[in-house]
């Protein structure tokens, strides 16, 4: 195992300890730490905070949630090619409030590492950072191993809001630690290693690529497609898709199902109403 | 989920007990460079230029003042409270405003100012990085908020690389609210005055 | 050797966007291909795959393989279905699938890389925005030759929604950006997202129309 893989593996195996240390340090330095379970909850929290602080955010909770999901996608989604937008600063709140994603969180220093952002200027009044719970590293010196993997531009280490006597910098700093399915991955011995991911992008399509993709933290890229596509839990899959599969392998039954779909069409599916003839019908008629 | 519930579920997932100490974390391999000052300077010159920065190497406070005055070209500048700037007599130059104590005032001044003069925490030779640490004396607005940044720093602050910086006492990072590594990508113009 | 292609219209196009399939057939004929439609076809298996039901995705995928076993070229109007068949199906069904799967081509890619045609003699005098999709290159090249077409810039397609996976609706922000672009049409290659968008625009009573790339290319 490479050194980065070892360090990440160690952190995950002791995640509760490192999160507790991070929280203790950061709150001691004036930061606020919040634990939330989904992008929805994060969006609600941020919207409420903005309202309380009288900061106008253009776009509603929906847009905030989408922004959060782009900033900090689930590990599974990232590994399937959805790249995160850590470098984008959302200009939704007129410079008053900023929501960014962290590259790393350093437990011993209570520090938040933001990579790829343009540093500079007085900064927002309220700084919110969203990070998956797995993004912790034990010590500042561990950053030396991981930061170069990111090939980022500027790097910022925030340890809290502005200190007494400072003339600029955020008045409030919130670190939102997002679970979003990560504790479930952690509990699954086969999938825990996926959380070692540091979003270096080496495995994403369009990069240097070719056949030789080496993951610096030792995630088995080859077996990803199978690993990420396990059988869905009973409520989603199960009999529904067995029935679906049965129909889809029988063209005449499929056609019949199509007719039924039209007859019992539902608005809530969010799709436009079906046209009067299917492609097959039109094609058949064209052949006569 | 409440904070305690989160920790409960994590411990359950990991099979750990509350207050259980982790095993010793693996040590990262840090690449310490045994470079002389001259070697570090050589690397830094190249790397900093490649990032689009302009380097002025001076050997006296007077020279430093001259470079600053040249860049100001009779106009005005805003300077931070870094001790080095006072020592070099830069704060006394015509057109230099300093000694800010009010956030509002600073914000207003920075809206129209073109040049910011500050010092920095250290430099990293290998990557041509400028490391800034923000404090009451060194605000963000002045060091990085303006179109042209003039940064005055002593040669002795030139470290070899990131590993050296991060290998140093981590308490350093905790002592300020923000430390920034500037790698010059699409930055406002940076002139470094190395004394 | 006769130039012949087999259409795989996909279940979504068959049921909800037949014009795209008919347009695709028109264009293929125009550039000199004989076009056949095998009635045994149904679906590529993506809905099950996105839901995590590998078993059913594989079963339906294998039905596809059987239906098109001897087809030299299978052309489909959906980038995501092409991807499902070319990349995912071999993962599920093994190397045997690779042979047939390798003969599946997304429509725009087929025109540019196999038929080696970029100007299909189309005319579409409108201002459009082009919906983001994987493998947009060939589609853009083809659009470049369409007379009278003006492509307006639009880079942020976040909030496009998802029909099978996360089942997300289209975001109001995206609708606003499209309306704000000034375009009269949205051209798409990912049929599900195009349809979701169409519904979202209809509900907002916007006059903007959504069309599939094939329909644009078929226009004279």
What is the alpha-carbon Rg of chain C in Å? 17 Å
Order of helices and strands of chain C: EHHEHHEHHEHEHEHEHEH
Helix content of chain C: 40-55%
Low-confidence stretches of chain B: none
The structure class of chain C reads alpha/beta
Number of strands of chain C: 8
Report strand % of chain B: 15-25%
- Our estimate of the beta-strand percent of chain C is 5-15%
Mean pLDDT of chain C: 90
Helical element count of chain B?
8
Distance between the termini of chain B: 55 Å
On the 0-100 scale, what is the average pLDDT of chain B? 91
Strand order of the largest sheet of chain C: 2-1-3-4
By DSSP (H or I, 4+ residues per run), the number of helices of chain C equals: 11
Largest interface: A-B, 64 and 57 residues
- What radius of gyration of chain B results from the CA coordinates? 21 Å
End-to-end gap of chain C:
29 Å
Major sheet size, sense and barrel closure of chain B: 6 strands, parallel
User: Order of strands in the sheet with the most strands of chain B?
Assistant: 1-10-7-4-2-3
Question: What can you tell me about this protein's structure?
Answer:
The complex is a heterotrimer of chains A (288), B (195) and C (220). By secondary structure, chain A is an alpha/beta fold. Chain A is built from eleven helices and eight strands. In chain A, helix 3 packs across helix 4. Chain A is globular, with a radius of gyration of 23 Å. In chain B, strand 2, helix 4 and strand 3 form a beta-alpha-beta unit. The longest helix of chain B has 14 residues. In chain C, helix 4 crosses helix 5. Chains in contact: A-B, A-C. At the A-B interface, helix 1, helix 2, helix 6, strand 7 and helix 7 of A face helix 1, helix 5, helix 6, helix 7 and strand 9 of B. Strand 7 of chain A pairs antiparallel with strand 9 of chain B, so a sheet runs across the interface.
Furnish the topology, listing elements before pairings.
The complex is a heterotrimer of chains A (288), B (195) and C (220).
Chain A: H1 3-13, H2 15-28, E1 32-36, H3 39-52, H4 61-71, H5 75-79, E2 97-101, E3 104-106, E4 111-115, E5 126-132, E6 136-137, H6 140-150, E7 155-158, E8 172-178, H7 182-187, H8 224-227, H9 239-248, H10 251-263, H11 279-287
Parallel strand pairs in A: 1-8, 2-5, 3-6, 5-8
Antiparallel strand pairs in A: 3-4, 4-7
Helix pairs in contact in A: 3-4
Chain B: H1 3-14, H2 37-50, E1 54-57, H3 61-72, E2 77-79, H4 83-87, E3 96-97, H5 103-112, E4 115-118, E5 122-124, E6 129-134, H6 140-144, E7 148-153, E8 158-159, H7 162-167, H8 171-174, E9 178-182, E10 189-194
Parallel strand pairs in B: 1-10, 2-3, 2-4, 4-7, 5-8, 7-10
Antiparallel strand pairs in B: 5-6, 6-9
Chain C: E1 4-7, H1 11-16, H2 18-30, E2 34-37, H3 46-50, H4 54-67, E3 74-76, H5 79-93, H6 96-101, E4 104-106, H7 107-114, E5 127-130, H8 137-144, E6 150-151, H9 172-181, E7 185-188, H10 191-203, E8 209-212, H11 213-218
């Amino acid at each position: 195992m490479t050194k980065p893989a070892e360090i990440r593996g160690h952190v995950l195996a002791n995640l509760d300890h490192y999160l507790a240390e991070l929280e203790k340090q950061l709150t001691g330095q004036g930061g606020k730490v919040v634990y939330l379970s989904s992008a929805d909850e994060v969006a609600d929290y941020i919207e409420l905070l903005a309202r309380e602080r009288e900061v106008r955010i253009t776009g509603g909770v929906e847009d905030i949630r989408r922004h959060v999901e782009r900033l900090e996608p689930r590990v599974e989604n990232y590994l399937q090619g959805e790249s995160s937008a850590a470098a984008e600063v959302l200009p939704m709140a007129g410079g008053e409030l900023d929501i960014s994603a962290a590259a790393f969180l350093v437990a011993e220093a209570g520090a938040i590492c933001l990579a790829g952002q343009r540093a500079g200027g007085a900064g927002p009044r309220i700084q919110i950072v969203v990070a998956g719970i797995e993004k912790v590293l034990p010590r500042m010196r561990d950053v030396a191993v991981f930061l170069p993997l990111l090939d980022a531009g500027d790097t910022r280490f925030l340890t809290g809001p502005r200190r007494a006597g400072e003339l600029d910098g955020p008045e409030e700093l919130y670190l939102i630690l997002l679970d979003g399915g990560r504790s479930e991955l952690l509990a699954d011995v086969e999938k825990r290693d996926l959380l070692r991911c540091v979003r270096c992008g080496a495995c994403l399509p369009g990069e240097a690529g070719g056949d030789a993709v080496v993951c610096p933290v030792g995630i088995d890229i080859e077996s990803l497609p199978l690993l990420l596509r396990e059988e869905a839990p009973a409520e989603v899959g199960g009999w529904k898709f067995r029935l679906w599969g049965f129909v889809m392998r029988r063209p005449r039954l499929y056609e019949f199902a199509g007719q039924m779909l039209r007859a019992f069409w539902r608005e809530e599916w969010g799709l436009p109403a079906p046209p009067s003839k299917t492609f097959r019908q039109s094609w058949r008629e064209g052949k006569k | 989920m409440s904070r305690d519930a989160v920790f409960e579920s994590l411990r359950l997932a990991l099979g750990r007990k509350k207050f259980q100490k982790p095993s010793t974390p693996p040590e990262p391999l840090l690449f310490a460079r045994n470079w002389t000052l001259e070697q570090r300077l050589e690397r830094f010159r190249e790397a900093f230029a490649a990032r689009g920065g302009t380097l002025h190497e001076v050997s006296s406070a007077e020279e430093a003042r001259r470079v600053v005055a040249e860049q100001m070209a009779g106009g005005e500048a805003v300077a931070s409270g870094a001790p080095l700037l006072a020592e070099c007599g830069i704060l006394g130059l015509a057109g230099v405003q300093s000694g800010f104590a009010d956030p509002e005032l600073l914000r207003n001044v920075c809206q129209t100012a073109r040049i910011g003069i500050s010092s920095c925490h250290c430099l990293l030779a290998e990557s041509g990085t400028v490391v800034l640490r923000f404090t009451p004396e060194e605000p963000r607005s002045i060091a990085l908020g303006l179109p042209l940044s003039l940064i005055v720093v002593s040669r002795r602050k030139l470290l070899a690389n990131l590993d050296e910086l991060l290998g140093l006492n981590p308490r350093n990072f905790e002592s300020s609210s923000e430390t920034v590594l500037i790698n010059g990508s699409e930055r406002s113009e940076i002139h470094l005055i190395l004394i | 050797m006769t130039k012949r292609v087999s259409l795989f219209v996909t279940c979504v196009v068959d049921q909800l966007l037949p014009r795209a399939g008919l347009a695709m057939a028109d264009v293929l004929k125009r550039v000199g291909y004989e076009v056949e439609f095998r009635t045994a076809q149904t679906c590529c298996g993506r809905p099950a795959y996105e839901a995590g039901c590998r078993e059913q995705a594989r079963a339906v995928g294998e039905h596809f393989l059987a239906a098109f076993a001897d087809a030299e070229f299978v052309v489909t109007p959906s980038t995501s279905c092409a991807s499902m068949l070319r990349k995912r199906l071999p993962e599920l069904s093994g190397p045997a699938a690779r042979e047939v799967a390798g003969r599946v081509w997304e429509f725009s890619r087929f025109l540019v890389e196999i038929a080696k045609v970029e100007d299909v003699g189309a005319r579409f005098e409108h201002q459009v925005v082009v919906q983001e999709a994987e493998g947009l290159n060939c589609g853009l090249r083809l659009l470049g030759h369409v007379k009278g077409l003006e492509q307006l810039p639009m880079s942020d397609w976040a909030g496009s929604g998802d029909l099978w996976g996360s089942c997300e609706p289209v975001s109001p922000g995206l609708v606003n950006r499209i309306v704000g672009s000034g375009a009269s049409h949205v051209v798409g290659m990912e049929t599900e997202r195009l349809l979701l968008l169409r519904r979202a625009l209809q509900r907002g009573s916007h006059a903007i129309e959504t069309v599939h790339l094939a329909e644009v290319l078929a226009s004279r």
